[in-house]
Amino acid sequence: MDRLEADTDSTDEPAEDQDDLEGHRGDTTAEPQSRKWRPFLALGTAACVLVASELTWLFWDDLMYPLGDPRACAGSDTALPDVIVAGGARLPSDATQVRYYTYEGQAVVSFVSDQVPGYLVRAHLIPDTAPPVLDREHGSAYGLGPDDSDLPEGLCGEGIRGPAWIFDLPMPPDTAGLPGVPSPGTVLVEVSADGNDALRTPARVQLTFPLVTAED
Hints:
The chain is an alpha+beta fold. It contains three helices and ten strands, in the order ααββββαββββββ. It has helices at residues 2-58, 60-64, 116-122, and strands at 85-86, 89-90, 96-103, 106-113, 140-142, 149-150, 160-161, 164-168, 186-190, 203-210. The strands form three sheets. Strands 3-4-10-9-8-5 form a six-stranded antiparallel sheet, with no helix packed on it. Strands 1-2 form a two-stranded antiparallel ribbon. The protein has a two-stranded antiparallel sheet with strand order 6-7. The radius of gyration is 37 Å and the shape is elongated. The termini are far apart.
Protein backbone atom coordinates (compact mmCIF):
# COMPACT_ATOMS: atom_id res chain seq x y z
CA MET A 1 0.00 0.00 0.00
CA ASP A 2 2.81 2.35 0.86
CA ARG A 3 4.53 1.44 -2.34
CA LEU A 4 1.41 2.33 -4.35
CA GLU A 5 1.11 5.72 -2.70
CA ALA A 6 4.74 6.46 -3.40
CA ASP A 7 4.23 5.60 -7.03
CA THR A 8 1.18 7.82 -7.17
CA ASP A 9 3.06 10.75 -5.68
CA SER A 10 5.88 10.35 -8.15
CA THR A 11 3.47 10.61 -11.06
CA ASP A 12 2.32 14.09 -9.89
CA GLU A 13 5.75 15.72 -10.15
CA PRO A 14 5.96 15.87 -13.95
CA ALA A 15 2.73 17.90 -14.02
CA GLU A 16 4.37 20.65 -12.00
CA ASP A 17 7.43 20.55 -14.20
CA GLN A 18 5.17 20.83 -17.21
CA ASP A 19 3.58 23.98 -15.78
CA ASP A 20 6.98 25.52 -15.16
CA LEU A 21 7.99 24.67 -18.71
CA GLU A 22 4.89 26.35 -20.09
CA GLY A 23 5.65 29.43 -18.01
CA HIS A 24 9.16 29.66 -19.39
CA ARG A 25 7.83 29.25 -22.89
CA GLY A 26 5.46 32.13 -22.26
CA ASP A 27 8.36 34.36 -21.18
CA THR A 28 10.41 33.58 -24.27
CA THR A 29 7.58 34.64 -26.55
CA ALA A 30 7.71 38.16 -24.97
CA GLU A 31 11.42 38.66 -25.61
CA PRO A 32 11.16 39.25 -29.36
CA GLN A 33 8.65 42.04 -28.68
CA SER A 34 11.11 44.00 -26.50
CA ARG A 35 14.00 43.33 -28.87
CA LYS A 36 11.96 44.80 -31.71
CA TRP A 37 11.95 48.21 -30.02
CA ARG A 38 15.61 48.31 -29.01
CA PRO A 39 16.92 49.83 -32.29
CA PHE A 40 14.31 52.59 -32.10
CA LEU A 41 15.21 53.36 -28.47
CA ALA A 42 18.89 53.52 -29.39
CA LEU A 43 18.17 55.88 -32.29
CA GLY A 44 16.01 58.10 -30.07
CA THR A 45 18.71 58.30 -27.41
CA ALA A 46 21.35 59.16 -30.00
CA ALA A 47 19.12 61.90 -31.45
CA CYS A 48 18.56 63.45 -28.00
CA VAL A 49 22.30 63.45 -27.29
CA LEU A 50 22.99 65.06 -30.68
CA VAL A 51 20.40 67.81 -30.15
CA ALA A 52 21.70 68.52 -26.63
CA SER A 53 25.26 68.75 -27.94
CA GLU A 54 24.26 71.17 -30.69
CA LEU A 55 22.34 73.39 -28.28
CA THR A 56 25.24 73.40 -25.80
CA TRP A 57 27.67 74.42 -28.55
CA LEU A 58 25.31 77.10 -29.85
CA PHE A 59 24.77 78.72 -26.45
CA TRP A 60 28.16 77.88 -24.91
CA ASP A 61 29.22 81.52 -24.43
CA ASP A 62 25.92 82.42 -22.79
CA LEU A 63 26.14 79.38 -20.52
CA MET A 64 29.73 80.10 -19.48
CA TYR A 65 29.75 83.91 -19.40
CA PRO A 66 27.16 86.62 -18.68
CA LEU A 67 25.99 88.21 -21.95
CA GLY A 68 28.33 85.85 -23.82
CA ASP A 69 31.28 88.11 -22.89
CA PRO A 70 34.15 86.73 -20.76
CA ARG A 71 34.85 90.30 -19.57
CA ALA A 72 31.37 90.69 -18.07
CA CYS A 73 30.79 90.06 -14.38
CA ALA A 74 27.81 88.12 -13.07
CA GLY A 75 24.66 90.23 -12.92
CA SER A 76 25.63 92.58 -15.75
CA ASP A 77 22.56 93.67 -17.72
CA THR A 78 24.18 95.33 -20.75
CA ALA A 79 27.06 94.13 -22.93
CA LEU A 80 29.83 96.63 -23.65
CA PRO A 81 31.37 96.86 -27.13
CA ASP A 82 34.65 95.20 -27.99
CA VAL A 83 36.35 98.59 -27.85
CA ILE A 84 35.39 100.24 -24.57
CA VAL A 85 35.41 104.05 -24.52
CA ALA A 86 35.13 106.21 -21.41
CA GLY A 87 35.73 109.94 -21.18
CA GLY A 88 36.19 110.11 -24.94
CA ALA A 89 39.23 107.80 -24.81
CA ARG A 90 39.63 104.15 -25.66
CA LEU A 91 41.17 101.74 -23.20
CA PRO A 92 44.92 101.32 -23.75
CA SER A 93 45.85 98.81 -26.44
CA ASP A 94 47.78 96.69 -23.93
CA ALA A 95 44.94 96.53 -21.39
CA THR A 96 44.66 93.15 -19.68
CA GLN A 97 42.42 91.66 -16.99
CA VAL A 98 39.52 93.69 -18.41
CA ARG A 99 36.36 93.17 -16.35
CA TYR A 100 33.12 95.11 -16.28
CA TYR A 101 29.83 95.26 -14.45
CA THR A 102 26.84 97.05 -15.95
CA TYR A 103 23.62 97.86 -14.12
CA GLU A 104 20.75 100.30 -14.57
CA GLY A 105 22.55 102.37 -17.21
CA GLN A 106 25.87 102.48 -15.33
CA ALA A 107 29.18 100.75 -16.03
CA VAL A 108 32.19 99.95 -13.88
CA VAL A 109 35.28 98.79 -15.77
CA SER A 110 38.60 97.52 -14.43
CA PHE A 111 41.83 96.87 -16.34
CA VAL A 112 45.62 96.77 -15.95
CA SER A 113 47.99 98.57 -18.30
CA ASP A 114 51.50 99.97 -18.72
CA GLN A 115 50.03 102.76 -20.85
CA VAL A 116 47.85 104.44 -18.22
CA PRO A 117 49.53 107.87 -18.60
CA GLY A 118 48.66 107.92 -22.30
CA TYR A 119 45.04 107.05 -21.51
CA LEU A 120 44.82 109.84 -18.91
CA VAL A 121 46.21 112.33 -21.45
CA ARG A 122 43.75 111.25 -24.15
CA ALA A 123 40.90 111.57 -21.64
CA HIS A 124 42.11 115.14 -20.84
CA LEU A 125 42.70 114.25 -17.21
CA ILE A 126 46.38 115.20 -17.02
CA PRO A 127 48.61 117.36 -19.24
CA ASP A 128 50.88 115.70 -21.76
CA THR A 129 54.11 115.91 -19.81
CA ALA A 130 56.91 113.52 -18.91
CA PRO A 131 56.76 112.34 -16.23
CA PRO A 132 52.96 112.62 -15.90
CA VAL A 133 51.75 115.30 -13.49
CA LEU A 134 49.57 114.25 -10.58
CA ASP A 135 48.55 117.24 -8.46
CA ARG A 136 45.47 118.86 -6.98
CA GLU A 137 44.73 120.55 -10.29
CA HIS A 138 44.51 117.15 -11.91
CA GLY A 139 42.53 114.89 -9.61
CA SER A 140 43.02 114.20 -5.94
CA ALA A 141 44.25 111.51 -3.57
CA TYR A 142 41.75 108.71 -2.94
CA GLY A 143 41.26 107.38 0.58
CA LEU A 144 43.04 104.04 0.26
CA GLY A 145 46.03 103.14 2.40
CA PRO A 146 48.97 101.07 1.10
CA ASP A 147 47.43 97.85 2.45
CA ASP A 148 43.85 98.66 1.39
CA SER A 149 41.98 97.61 -1.73
CA ASP A 150 38.72 98.66 -3.32
CA LEU A 151 36.36 96.56 -5.43
CA PRO A 152 32.98 98.13 -6.23
CA GLU A 153 29.92 95.97 -5.61
CA GLY A 154 29.21 93.75 -8.60
CA LEU A 155 32.63 94.14 -10.18
CA CYS A 156 34.65 90.91 -10.37
CA GLY A 157 38.38 90.33 -10.56
CA GLU A 158 40.93 92.04 -8.33
CA GLY A 159 40.33 95.31 -6.54
CA ILE A 160 42.42 98.41 -6.94
CA ARG A 161 45.22 98.73 -4.38
CA GLY A 162 46.04 101.82 -2.37
CA PRO A 163 47.34 104.40 -2.59
CA ALA A 164 45.27 105.68 -5.50
CA TRP A 165 44.37 108.88 -7.34
CA ILE A 166 40.87 109.78 -8.51
CA PHE A 167 39.83 111.96 -11.46
CA ASP A 168 36.45 113.29 -12.56
CA LEU A 169 35.90 112.73 -16.26
CA PRO A 170 35.32 116.06 -18.02
CA MET A 171 31.87 117.06 -19.21
CA PRO A 172 31.45 117.02 -22.99
CA PRO A 173 31.66 120.62 -24.31
CA ASP A 174 28.14 120.54 -25.77
CA THR A 175 26.56 119.40 -22.49
CA ALA A 176 28.47 121.42 -19.89
CA GLY A 177 26.12 123.36 -17.66
CA LEU A 178 22.95 121.80 -19.06
CA PRO A 179 20.43 120.57 -16.46
CA GLY A 180 19.75 116.87 -16.15
CA VAL A 181 23.01 115.77 -17.78
CA PRO A 182 24.60 112.95 -15.73
CA SER A 183 28.17 113.17 -14.53
CA PRO A 184 30.58 111.64 -17.07
CA GLY A 185 32.03 109.45 -14.32
CA THR A 186 35.31 108.93 -12.52
CA VAL A 187 38.70 107.31 -13.07
CA LEU A 188 40.52 105.66 -10.18
CA VAL A 189 44.22 104.89 -10.74
CA GLU A 190 46.85 103.10 -8.65
CA VAL A 191 49.87 105.20 -7.74
CA SER A 192 53.23 104.28 -6.29
CA ALA A 193 53.46 103.52 -2.58
CA ASP A 194 56.70 105.59 -2.40
CA GLY A 195 54.73 108.74 -1.67
CA ASN A 196 55.91 110.62 -4.77
CA ASP A 197 52.47 110.53 -6.48
CA ALA A 198 53.94 108.67 -9.44
CA LEU A 199 51.76 106.15 -11.26
CA ARG A 200 52.34 102.51 -10.54
CA THR A 201 53.68 100.50 -13.50
CA PRO A 202 51.68 98.62 -14.54
CA ALA A 203 48.69 100.27 -12.89
CA ARG A 204 45.18 99.03 -12.33
CA VAL A 205 42.41 101.42 -13.31
CA GLN A 206 38.73 101.51 -12.40
CA LEU A 207 36.36 103.50 -14.60
CA THR A 208 32.82 104.43 -13.57
CA PHE A 209 30.59 106.08 -16.15
CA PRO A 210 26.98 106.19 -17.39
CA LEU A 211 26.32 104.16 -20.51
CA VAL A 212 24.25 106.94 -22.04
CA THR A 213 27.42 108.98 -22.54
CA ALA A 214 29.69 106.09 -23.57
CA GLU A 215 31.05 106.41 -27.09
CA ASP A 216 31.39 103.52 -29.51
